[in-house]
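Sequence in, structure out.
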Amino acid sequence: MAPLVFITGGSGFLGSKVIVDALTAGYRVRASVRKAAQGEAIKAIKSIASFVSQLEIVIVPSLDAEGVFDDLLVGVDYVLHVASPLAAPEDGNFAGMVNTAWAGTESVLRAAEKNTSVKRVVITSSNWALSTFAEGLGGMEEPVTDQSVGTVSPPPYDNHFLAYHASKVVTFKATKEYIAKASASSHFDIINLHPSLILGKKELATSAADIMNGSNGLLFAPILGSTDPPLAISNATIYVGDVSAAHIRALDKEKVPGNRSYLLNIKASIPSAVEIVKKEFPKAVADGILPATGSRQEVNYPMDTSTAEKYLGMEFTPFEVAVKEIAQQYIELSASQ
């Protein structure tokens, strides 16, 4: 029987892609979502139609509920903990967003302790876990490495960017402390994957607006005509397919060392996205679907990805592939509305 992988955050941009790739790679998948309708949407993804019998959906309304993962990890071989709070809370409780991030991860690790079938837990972290908030926004000269650890800004957190950074640093540091305290005889190890800004097609998008929610929107605002972007973004980006592939490859305990970090990134030219769209989609530009009249400044954020290249065998997809994929999906969904 194929190994069973438990995936959190199955309805998200990255999580849904990881489900597709895990099933395609031959794993059985048990995936958590917050609502039943999200699970039905995942099952309807065309590319996994022939694998649906290998997919089990479970409902987890709250990541940080005590013991919520204990029974869900019974019989599980590997855990891919992709879920993390991203959106700003409606009540403005940004500190709660930070607390939930670590509480959810801790809940997964405690459940793994109780289920001896679990061999490895892979956690989706971020490049932001490896730097200060100021460096994330303002850039840096020296590259972050797999030995870097970010510095968290103290509360209060008055915006979701600051809270997101804090959630990633706090969770990463706590995970490192957990690894340091773990027994050498522990039945599972831990990997932290640190992707930069994730870009690409969204498996579950049903409208053009869906595509622009989240990281794609940060890049595509000027392509959609914004002349007043809220902030510059770093030239550190990564194709969603590469991040998903890294999660699947990280399950190979024979080839990929555990209890360490792997950085995922390719240096991009953020301003070039507008020119790529103009060149590749002239009709959409002329028709005003993709006006490509805005601009976006970038800051330098170098990352040393040599460890991921060595052990995960990563050969990163060029930036323009992600730009074209997002634009193509946006055009197709715009036409269907």
